[in-house]
Design brief:
Blueprint (H helix, E strand, L loop, with lengths): L21 H14 L12 H8 L3 H13 L3 E4 L3 E4 L6 H8 L7 H13 L28 H12 L4 H4 L8 H15 L8 E4 L1 H13 L5 E6 L3 H9 L3 E8 L2 E2 L1 H7 L5 E4 L13 H14 L2 E5 L15 H5 L4 E6 L11 E4 L2 H14 L5 H12 L2 H28 L4 E3 L6 E5 L6 H10 L5 E2 L12 E5 L8 H14 L5
Parallel strand pairs: 4-5, 4-7, 7-8, 8-9
Antiparallel strand pairs: 1-2, 3-10, 5-6, 9-10, 11-12, 12-14, 13-14
Helix pairs in contact: 1-3, 5-10, 6-15, 8-15, 9-10, 9-14, 16-18
The protein binds pyridoxal-5'-phosphate.
The site of pyridoxal-5'-phosphate (PLP) has 13 residues, from helix 9.
Length: 498
């Protein structure tokens, strides 16, 4: 906009406490306004006297800035007519439209972007409102029951003596003490025999999936994926240009025979054998053996995602797939996101020996090791005996929370939802009437502040009835009834007859 009578330099902010001289600050800000098109070519500036008054500057400071802007062609002085923005900057405002065009991105980035918006079209994790009493989102453990006092005490021990171990770059594989604690834990809990050299600490399981994809897969390689299955892992492999082979889940788990029929040459199989995510099935012993046999024969890899095997309420926890195969073709991925808390961002990979160094080489390029302070605190938590006690307490808490919520949902919604209690994990599935669009329902419910995920989001092929994932771990027992009532009220408000 050109104002004949002069134009005040709005938006100029001078920091008098800054070590940068005021004339330099003024010069940089006026130049930025011209370059961005905010001050258009041909614009007449106010008189130096007015500007000095407006900006609280001495005349010499202002002239210093303007002299430099004039020397560089940003401003022109017309005798008797004042100071103008150089005409060649005319049209700069229109050009800024070009600058606002979306940036040119790599194919990988474009793939990730579109895959994420395609897969996460429903209710987003970030839409969850912690103050809302009707959240059934499945990824939340019981934050209210986390032993923060013990955690703080352990962390403070390290904070009191800041040094290299707490504040420096950590070991590339992760803190040795933590790796040793993991070795003891997985032997005891999962029957896995490994050495600390085979364990690499990652920023959660998700980073492990990405690094494993980069380590083992080329564009076009086929990957067996559980259908329905873990969405974030699927995206990680798809973004690398891999071809996904969706395999159905039956009562024994992943249908290995389907994989053998459709794509025996797959390079990798991704599986959640201890609690199929999201359906909750435990993979049978026979299926485990079939899967391991396939990997051995075809020199394929199996990524075993074991994110919450600690929380089993019914039946025996079978040893990990890794234990069965003796660490030949199985790569085990564990996480502290469910047993401790997700923002900790600590997970671990247990690798066959031959993969350790190549994995670490990729890791070194992508990242360093996660926060050493958190690794040290987690190692203490495990070695001082808090970890197993916490898991035991959480297992019985979640079992009780599930029972209460199950009862309440049956009572309030039994005519509409067919809820099956989960044998393991942190969510149940509420099966919906045939023909119901679970995706649309989850979105509508979120509009009523009732948060669930649709089963459809996890599916590549739609062969299952519609359903909702109903997290129970974060719902205190005394609130279960109220939450189920609110859930029912929201459904009625949406026009559903219960
Ligand atoms: C099936 C599955 N695996 C792994 C994870 C853990 O991921 P991370 O360790 O990156 O938090 C999740 C998180 O929700 C999950 O659902």
């Amino acid at each position: 906009m050109k104002t004949p009578g002069g134009m005040l330099l709005t938006g100029i902010e001078l920091d008098r406490a800054s070590p940068m001289p005021l004339y330099r600050q003024l010069y940089l800000q006026v130049r930025k306004q011209i370059l961005s098109g905010r001050l258009a070519g041909g614009t007449r500036l106010p008189s130096t006297r007015t500007l000095c008054k407006e900006l609280g500057l001495s005349r010499i400071t202002l002239l210093n800035a303007f002299d430099q802007l004039t020397a560089e062609g940003f401003l022109v002085s017309r005798t008797g007519a004042g100071t103008y923005v150089g005409d060649e900057w005319e049209g700069r405002a229109a050009n800024t439209g070009i600058e606002r065009q979306p940036p040119r991105l790599s194919s990988l980035s474009q793939a990730v972007h579109s895959l994420r918006s395609e897969h996460f079209s429903g209710v987003s994790y970030s839409a969850w409102d912690p103050d809302c009493p009707t959240s059934f989102l499945p990824s939340h453990p019981a934050y209210d029951a986390f032993p923060m006092a013990a955690w703080k005490r352990l962390m403070n021990r390290h904070l009191r003596k800041p040094g290299k171990e707490q504040l420096g770059y950590g070991e590339l594989k992760g803190l040795r003490r933590l790796r040793e604690a993991i070795v003891d834990y997985v032997l005891d809990a999962r029957g896995i025999e490994c050495t600390p050299e085979q364990v690499v600490i990652t920023s959660g399981a998700q980073q492990a999936f990405n690094l494993l994809g980069m380590l083992l897969l080329n564009p076009g390689d086929a990957v067996w994926m559980e259908d329905p299955g873990h969405i974030a892992a699927r995206i990680a492999f798809q973004a690398l240009g891999c071809r996904l082979v969706p395999l159905r889940i039956d009562e024994q788990g992943l249908d290995v025979q389907q994989g053998l029929r459709e794509c025996p040459e797959a390079r990798l199989a991704f599986s959640t054998p201890s609690r199929q995510h999201p359906l909750g099935t435990t993979m049978s012993y026979a299926r485990r053996q079939e899967l391991i046999d396939w990997a051995g024969r075809s020199q394929g890899w199996i990524v075993e995602d074991d994110c919450d095997s600690e929380f089993r309420y019914v039946g025996r926890t079978l040893p990990a797939l890794y234990a069965l195969d003796g660490g030949q073709r199985v790569i085990y991925v564990g996480t502290f996101s469910k047993v401790l808390y997700p923002s900790l961002r600590l997970g671990y990979v247990i690798l066959p020996e031959a993969l350790v160094e190549p994995f670490c080489a990729i890791r070194a390029v992508m990242d360093r090791s996660p926060s050493t302070l958190h690794q040290a605190t987690t190692a203490d938590f495990m070695q001082d005996g808090h970890f197993l006690g916490h898991i035991r307490r959480m297992r019985s808490l979640y079992q009780a929370r599930q029972a209460r919520l199950f009862e309440a949902l049956q009572r309030e919604l039994g005519g509409f939802l067919c809820v099956a209690p989960a044998e393991a994990g942190l969510h149940m599935i509420g099966w919906l009437p045939e023909g119901c669009d679970d995706d649309a329902l989850a979105r509508d419910l979120a509009g009523q502040r009732v948060y669930t995920y649709a089963l459809r989001d996890y599916c590549m092929h739609h062969y299952l009835p519609p359903g909702l994932l109903l997290g129970f771990a974060a719902t205190p027992e005394e609130l279960a009834g109220l939450r189920a009532e609110e859930f029912a009220r929201a459904l009625r408000a949406l026009g559903w007859k219960l």
